[in-house]
From TrEMBL:
GO biological process: lactate metabolic process; tricarboxylic acid cycle
Family label: Belongs to the LDH/MDH superfamily.
Pfam family, one: Ldh_1_C
All residue ranges annotated as the Lactate/malate dehydrogenase N-terminal domain in the record: 2-137
Name used for this protein in its record: Lactate/malate dehydrogenase, NAD binding domain protein
Binding site for NAD(+): 6-11, 113-115
InterPro entries: L-lactate/malate_DH, L-lactate_DH_AS, Lactate/malate_DH_C, Lactate/malate_DH_N, Lactate_DH/Glyco_Ohase_4_C, NAD(P)-bd_dom_sf
PROSITE patterns named in the record: L_LDH (PS00064)
MF terms in GO: L-lactate dehydrogenase (NAD+) activity
Keyword NADP: no
Highest taxon listed in the record's lineage: Archaea
Keyword NAD part of the UniProt annotation: yes
Active site annotation, chain numbering: 171
Amino acid sequence: MISIIGSGKVGTAIAFLCITNSLDDILFVNRTKSKAIGEALDISNAIPANSNVTIHGTDDFSKISGSNIVVITASTGTYLKSRTEMMDAQVKMIKEISNKIKKYCPSAIVLVVSNPLDVLTFIFQKETQFSRNKVIGIASSLDSSRFRYLLSEKFGIKQSQITDALVMGEHGDSMVPIFSRVKINGKNVSEMLNDSDKKTISTETQNYWRSLRLLKTRSEFGIAKNTFDVIRAIIDNDELVIPASIVLNGEYGEKDVALGIPVKINKNGIKEIIEIKLNEQENKLLKISAQTIRNYIKSL
Ligand SMILES: NC(=O)c1ccc[n+]([C@@H]2O[C@H](COP(=O)([O-])OP(=O)(O)OC[C@H]3O[C@@H](n4cnc5c(N)ncnc54)[C@H](OP(=O)(O)O)[C@@H]3O)[C@@H](O)[C@H]2O)c1
């Protein structure tokens, strides 16, 4: 069973993908019980006719017992200017949720989706003392999707012609698009862009959510697909390589912080942390990003 904490926009979009692909049974746990039940009732009509999966809703955390995967998409409100705007309320919320997950699902793999992503991933792991390989913050893969989209628009090409578009670091303003690895039809993109182009694309990647917010209330489908891919990799024991937030213990020279770095995911959670070679500027920006997240954690 997959338990999804929070049946708002993101939680329901993830559940819809899981259900239509018959991945596993879904349980929504939402603060407002009627919303959990209502969303489950709606999505239950999307279960394929030949499928055995089920979907239900509750406000009772004890029902998550036995879940192999728990996805946290709960949110206490909507931020307007920065993902860290509601940090105190979100940290209080994740502490409460982490106690319940620890009590009812001590062996689960936990995917953190709620913001501020890296801070909450760190707090969850520290509160529960779950193995850091089982606490995965999902966001850098979404940021990488956005980076790939912006590059495809810049060059007027299909996204499929772009490989290794990777964003590391904070799911926030200090995120680091890694230009040195991106290839277009096999050619290094760094040679096709000048510094000013790179700066513009970096800023557009960091501000993608702000541009989107001018046109719709909040994003849901991109993060849902990226989270679904991770859930499927865990269930199918595929080896999926994506950037995700994990508590670091010396990797990339960082400790006491969680941030987005490339990892390999399989049925056990994070099987391997991948340390890639970055250029001097990217290394410097990643250090700044790690320090930004650490400062948020220290300010709590
Ligand atoms: N990682 C990423 O890349 C990414 C991308 C997009 C969004 N996000 C984040 O994902 C989160 C969810 O976004 P959203 O648009 O889905 O928000 P939303 O529509 O407001 O849904 C949040 C849901 O969480 C529920 N909730 C609040 N506290 C809870 C608790 N203690 N236990 C159980 N449920 C609780 C709310 O219940 P009520 O019905 O009572 O209000 C609400 O249904 C936000 O933090 C957002 O910033 C992350």
